[in-house]
Amino acid sequence: MNDDLISPGHRTCAGCGSILAARHMLKATGRDVIICESTGCLEVTSTQYPLTSWKVPWIHVLFENAVSVAVGVKAALWAQGNEHTQVIAFGGDGGIVDIGFGAVSGALERNDDIMIITYDNEAYANTGIQRSGATPFGASTGTSPHGKVSIGKKVWKKNVPMIAVAHGAGYVASASIAYPKDLQDKIKKAMSIKGTRYIHIHTPCPVGWGFDSSKTIEIARLAVQTGMWILFEIEDGKFKKMFRPTELMPVENYLRMQKRFEHLKEEEIKIIQDHINQTWKELDNLEKSGVNLRTIL
Amino acid sequence: MIADGRIKSRFLEVESEFSAISSVAGAVAAGSRAFTATCSQGLALMHEVLFAIAGMRLPVVMVVTNRALSSPINIWNDCQDSISERDSGWIQLYVETVQEAVDTIIQAYKIAEDNRVLLPVMVCMDGFILTHTVEPVELPDDVEVKKFLPKYKPNHAFLDPTRPMTLGPFTYPEPYFKLRKELSLAIDNSKIIISEVNEEFGEMFKRKYGNGLIEEYKNDKKIAIVSMGSVCGTIKCVVDSRKDTGLVRIRCYRPLPKEDLIEALKGKEIVIVLDKNISLGLGSGSVFSEVRDVLYSLKDRPKVVGCVAGLGGTDIKSKDINRLIDESKKMKDGEVVWLI
Ligand SMILES: Cc1ncc(C[n+]2csc(CCOP(=O)(O)OP(=O)(O)O)c2C)c(N)n1
Predict the structure, then answer these.
(1) What's the number of domains chain A is made of?
(2) With contact defined as beta carbons under 8 Å apart, do B275 and B241 qualify?
(3) What's the CA-to-centroid distance between B332 and ligand 1, angstroms?
(4) Angle at the Cα of A115 (from A112 to A116), degrees rounded to 5?
(5) CA within 20 to 30 Å of B259's CA: A139, A190, B96, B266, which one?
(6) Which residues on B lie below 8 Å from A72 (Cβ)?
(7) What pTM did the predictor assign?
(8) What's B22's domain CATH number?
(9) Which atom of ligand 1 approaches the CA of A208 most closely?
(10) Are A70 and B169 in contact (CB < 8 Å)?
(11) C-beta of residue A13 within 8 angstroms of C-beta of residue A42
(12) B56 near A CB under 8 A
């Protein structure tokens, strides 16, 4: 029986995308896994003492050290002669992309044999939606509010997958909860590879982004269909797009469904659209070129 | 040793002290023995993790080679770094000699891993004074050590896919409060085990350190100096040359051995507490204020005076200590002097 390794009864908000990422992750890994999680929405809502939703060994120490904890867990398993258990550092974009990034970079540089998975809800959700390095351009958050003279977040999203490849990571991928098969396949493939593997999962947040909780998957899918979130895989340095519609939908379709982008004016949406078109094209060129990002970056 | 294949361990080349202690936490949570060492800024960087480790009841052992904290930046010895972590829930043992450091590290694992304790232990040794000097040390025999400290087999909570557990969950106010109280009781109760382990070590290796908690040296005089660490070596020399003063060395600062201190200090005329740290805003070192607090319940309290000394590696000489003892006779109860 393919039973769920995340029990129901956790306290995530209705329509939470992040808990789905956890669920799909465990469907791919099975029971032989240890999850090292950072402080954030999922940790708080899935392990309310004395209850837990995790049917696999799970540890939380702090906000910024899930990766270093995982490195230690892996070393202990090595000492115990255990070569089979997968060790995964699992954290929000705040924990992985921002405050814990030093440890991410350290693990990648040493090529420690762990998997790092970011569930990216594009903000510090647990503390009430502040901007993170993964918050997209133009999004309004508590610490990047829009206003008469502010567009919201003024800079583009930090591109951690590419930073991971620049460290020489053997397997890097992006994924989305709207494409669970693709997500699980990527985790399974990552499990077959040694060294530091990095997977970045897009997980919409109804509360933080301002959309109806029934629309989580729709929003996640639209992100991919508009090119706001690009599904790719970089195996052994070779970039490959995993989802390639004949034509991208206008980004407006995605933005207009969310309160965090409500304030954007037409010309501002155009800036985002142009940026996406450019990125989409560049990535095609990158794929065609066949360059090995592990060695040239 | 690992590079030469002399011990089969994994050396983690982490990028920061924060990651070092986090990885040690992960390794111990996964059921293995681990070790790290740090001091000063490195220890301060670990601050957040220290509290988490104690709260999670992980039997981690770490050496702190005590050094001053910035600013101004200084690389020499004092105890400000570990004293500033006194409330973290770690057992803190302060050693006097390099030999004691070696012996105490072995003892520390036995204390930490005892099912009645399950707490992290910090072995504090004075930076430079003990870490950069040559001293003859008898290294305990490997086979004997393995007898004293057998292979680690955790039987409490640890990460194991065949027995899944959630470690480090989120807690609401009441369970949080209850768990903190349990932690407080656990560290208090560890005094018995610290003493036991010191005795057991003594029997096996023919070396022990006071009763494990405090060490009294010629403490049958009307004046007693109370201090910690390597400076106690100097104080012992001074004590040898005087008729009026003895020494009480605090070996275990956390948990604070209150009963032992009362027993050792009651009936004294003067108690002089020498601190290598300063609690800014309190105007004295932490050991001074705590010893004074401990003695408060005595009917005939000794006069307790304090001395802040040795900050940033400033030398503490025998003549300084002699002068301090002479001056203490004229000092008021509660008065603190700076040895500078
Ligand atoms: C050092 C530190 N700073 C701040 C916090 C408070 N805090 C807890 S969770 C969190 C944000 C988590 O954001 P993210 O990693 O994106 O996860 P999410 O909550 O969005 O799931 C913050 C700031 C903390 N726990 N530790």
Answers:
(1) 1
(2) no
(3) 50
(4) 105
(5) B96
(6) 12, 22-30, 34
(7) 0.96
(8) 3.40.50.970
(9) 20
(10) no
(11) no
(12) yes
